[in-house]
Amino acid sequence: MSTILTILVALVVMGGIAWVLRFAGQQVTNGAPFFRDMSFGVSFGYVLGVVVLAWLAWGFMQSRSSDPAIANKFFFLGVAIKGFVIFSIAAWLFRLLGRTVGTDWTRKMFRQMPLTASFGILAIIVYAIFAIFAGAIAPYGQDEIIQGVAANIIPGGDPAMGGDPAFPLGTDQIGRDILSRLIYGAQNTVGIAFITTMLAFFLGGSLGFLAAVVGGWTDQILSRGVDVLMAIPSLIFALLLMTIASVWSSRLGIPLTVFMVLIIALIDSTRVFRLARAVGQNIVVMDYIEAAKLRGEGMGYLVFKEILPNATAPLLAEFGLRFCFVFLTIASLSFLGVGIQPPLADWGTMVRDLAAFINFAQFAPLAATAPLLAASAIALLTVAVNFVVDWMLHKTSGLKE
Amino acid sequence: MTDTLLKMRGVKLEGRSDETWNPIINGVDLTLAKGEVLGLIGESGAGKSTLGLAAMGFTRDGVRISEGSVEFDGIDLLKASAAVKRGLLGKRIAYVAQSAAASFNPAHRLMEQHVEGPTQHGVMSKAESEADGIELYRKLRLPDPESIGFRYPHQVSGGQLQRAMTAMAMSCRPDLIIFDEPTTALDVTTQIEVLASIRDIVEQFNTAAIYITHDLAVVAQMADRIKVLLKGDEVETADTRTMLSAPTQEYTKSLWAVRSFERPLKAPVIASAVPSVSVQNVDAAYGKVPVLHDVSFDMHEGRTVAVVGESGSGKSTTARCITGLLPPTSGQIAFNGEVMPADYRKRSKDQLRQVQMIYQMADTALNPRMSIGEIIARPVQFYMGLTGKQKRARVDKLLDQIELEPSEYYNRLPSELSGGQKQRIGIARALAAEPKFIICDEVTSALDQLVAEGILRLLARLQDTLGLSYMFITHDLATVRAIADEVVVMKDGRVVEAGPKAEMFKPPHHPYTDLLLSSVPEMDPDWLTNLLQERGVDNIGDAAVGKM
Questions:
Q1: pLDDT range class, residue A127, cuts 50, 70, 90
Q2: Same domain, yes or no: B320 and B468
């Protein structure tokens, strides 16, 4: 009750400050358009932003407190803020580097790049390095249960709080190093999600464009087929197919993961198909397509040379989203036991395995962060991919003007 | 008229591109008295529309007013608060956009959109405003004024929609209306109705107006005074009659002189010659709707056949039949006496090569993702099988032919070219196939007069050097005068009249040809008044319909 009251009072106070800020601004600047045309909502937004920033700064100071109980509570907020600031500076330096080194073309690209995009690119590069060189970077194996080490060592690496410097992110419920598993997880999860999304786009994109160009019966058959696939709830459908595939995989000796990639790609390609067909239909009516048809061009040329380059913007935006959904689908399938199989590290599985620790938040905040590690790895990658996609979208749509 | 309504002083506008601010208007003064109509003319890119919007204290995204003042009835619009401006715009200053079809909300009925302004501004109640709307529709000579307001925008024609938009602008009885090319997208016969209605209603309510257009003949009918803009600078301002009879600046004179391009007449066709393209008794339909009825005409080598008629008359459909995009339901198309397969998919590569098209909208006719070089090189490679250096040499030669410097334009994208240059690329792409016959579908109607003339001269020169024959689809009779050897007049999917140009422009005409010819605006400022009297009307809409 008192919490609600506090929040209400805080809101009212903030509203008052916002009103005073706007009024003072109008008086001091003698009615400059910035303050004159400012609505109350905007003014409130400024105040709210300042309050949130102040709270973050306060939390950061708390995490450096000498009292371990308090520092403990804000430990990961401190790490997150530090990480964010350091990474932003790194992104800025990365962009600076790109502006001075390289060919004219890349330098021009980096000059026009917003900071968010270079943040995203840098994050993706870091993920890629971890994924490719996982074996060399990770201190332990992904399925290595280290002898003589306790399970459930708390993240943080501070012995005073129950951590162990040898395992900076702690160990999981059967004593595997979480850091190593996170690094291997990049290899498994990101790699598989990326391949799956590419496959879904290749399949859905080319069929969608084909339906748009040819029209008529081809369009009807493809579109109605896709409708049928979309009518079945996707997770249940995936489960069904995975169950069938698990029988085949042992009979044919092909890893189940291959089937998983194909099945998720097929299900996701239906969404891509619809988008590609809609975008394609808008392009097909253009005169340059008519000119190409009248020239006698074949289907391949029409789809890949004339239509595809003009459809990249919406498809890229979809790619960013779809990539994240594929991630989550893989995590759900792993959770249900038919996705990436246990000894292999996978972020979705890791979140699930350690999920119970979230209940300790009130008593041992540090322990509760264990499942959040893998979750934030997913979150950061998702944000990074979308930053880059946004920028590419802006760049390609800007070209059209 | 000493009562000043709008006063713009030293207005400078800048637009943002490539991260810098570039000037669009370099300090223009503009004064408008109450009830006065000012014509604003210039080529595209001269800053007409930007200046028109600035008169409302408004700029598009990425444009800013960097200097100067805009004073409307004593209120400084640039310093006024958003609330004050909200009270003025729509109520005392209104705007009529070029494309009414794109400016109406397609999800609401006309009347719902009409009453929005008056009710929002508290000028009238909803019922009053609706009654007033019907009155305005009647004054603007819209058919069926009582019920047309209940239609959706897609259910009325382009000319009617443009008038409905003018009615909407009048709904609050504003002191100033800005018309931004309100008739550019319309046919000549429709244009007259809209022009007459606008002129009447502006006079009736003593509204001041800024009339933006690139068509000199139109502005001559509408404006009391004319201001000529060139690349953001004012060239001159004068009374309409003075301006037309005695322009002082070179640029203005050149604008006036544009309409003089005309090719010498060619000797009549030898009766026995085999036509390069012959359309024989063609009927065509979209689905079950018949569009063409028994269309026949011939086109001979080295000559231009102009096909004229208003939109919906079947000009472009005939072209689609010739190219094979729309196989005729009966009748046939022959090239050099040889009958072509009706469907383009059944034609051989060489047969496809012989017919090329140049499109009206160069924007949609060129793939925005391909460089100019790639666009022109594709047919060269596809039909001639040239690759590498030979291909490059051929593309360079084609670029030379269309008077663009190859080294400069080869790697550019279409978006980096002006409208006229894009149209030239379209011509080069058609030429790359080395055809004998080219269909030009309204190739100049989206261009400024000076640029359009350049394109017409280029086409004429190419015809003389390469012996091409053109089918020239247009609704602009000035263009027909300039370039045609023979004329085919179409209406409702039928050929109404056909013959050599010299005969077509001499009476007696088919009544429809007569209507078309008389509807082309002339530079004489009394032309519209005289024409309306001649047609015996105060209701010009009916007159036009009746004569058809």
A1: confident
A2: yes
By Cβ distance, the residue of A36, A286, A399 closest to B81 is A36
On whether both B433 and B342 belong to a single domain, the answer is yes
| Inter-chain residue contact B415 with A297, CB threshold 8 Å | no
Chain A residue set in contact with B, beta carbons under 8 Å: 36-37, 286-288, 290-291, 293-297, 305-306, 309-310, 399-401
B355 and A294 in contact by Cβ < 8 A? Answer: yes
**DSSP reduced 3-state for B470:** strand
Cβ-Cβ contacts under 8 Å, B366 against chain A: 288
- Is residue B210 located within the same domain as residue B291? no
A294 to B366: CB separation less than 8 angstroms, yes or no: no
Section A48-67 average pLDDT:
86
Residue B344, chain A, CB below 8 Å: the answer is: yes
B3: in domain: no
- Residue B277's beta-bridge partner residues? B299, B335
Q: Which amino acid is at A365?
A: P
Does the pLDDT value for residue B542 go beyond 60? no
Residue B221 lies in a domain: yes
CA–CA dist B457, B326 (Å, integer): 31
pTM: 0.73
Distance CA B329, CA B338 (A): 19
Residues B149, B298 share a domain: no
The partner residues of B12 in beta bridges, in order of sequence, read: B26, B67
Give the minimum alpha-carbon distance from B309 to chain A in angstroms, rounded to a whole number: 22
Among the listed residues A256, A263, A313, the one whose alpha carbon sits nearest the alpha carbon of residue A283: A313
- What does the block give as tokens for B414? 């279409």
State whether B361 and B412 are in the same domain: yes
Co-location of B189 and B286 in the same domain: no
pLDDT digits 0-9 by tens, B418-443? 888 888 899 999 988 888 899 998 88
State the pLDDT confidence band at B2, using cuts at 50, 70 and 90.
low
Residue range(s) defining the domain that contains residue B359: 277-506
Query: What mean pLDDT value characterizes chain A?
Result: 83
Within-domain flag for B542: no
- Structural domain tally of chain B? 2
Tell me: do B110 and B150 sit in the same domain. yes
d(CA B309, CA B546): 17
A108: nearest CA in chain B? B18
pLDDT at B498: 84
- A-B C-beta contacts closer than 8 Å: 56
Position B355: which residue type? V
Tens of pLDDT, residue by residue over A329-387, are: 887 887 777 777 777 778 877 887 787 788 877 777 777 777 788 888 888 888 888 88
Q: Are residues B361 and B475 in the same domain?
A: yes
pLDDT reading at B485 higher than 60: yes
Least confident piece of the model among A71-80, B8-17, B45-54, B129-138: A71-80
**Angle between helical axes of A191-214 and A308-335 (0-180°, round to 10):** 140
**CB-CB: which of B82, B325, B349 is closest to A290?**
B325
ipTM > 0.90 (yes/no): no
Contacts 24+ apart (CB under 8 A), A353-357: A353/A172, A353/A173, A354/A172, A354/A173
Record: contact A291-B324, CB cut-off 8 A? no
Q: What are chain A's domains?
A: 1-62 (no CATH), 178-400 (1.10.3720.10)
Distance (Å, rounded) from C-alpha B548 to C-alpha B531?
Answer: 16
Contact check, Cβ <8 Å, A290/B367? no
- Note whether residue B356 is domain-resident: yes
Contacts of B383 in chain A (CB under 8 A): 295
Interface of B with A in 44-83 (CB under 8 A): 81-82
Q: pLDDT category, A224, cuts 50, 70, 90?
A: very high
Q: What CATH number is attached to the domain comprising B308?
A: 3.40.50.300
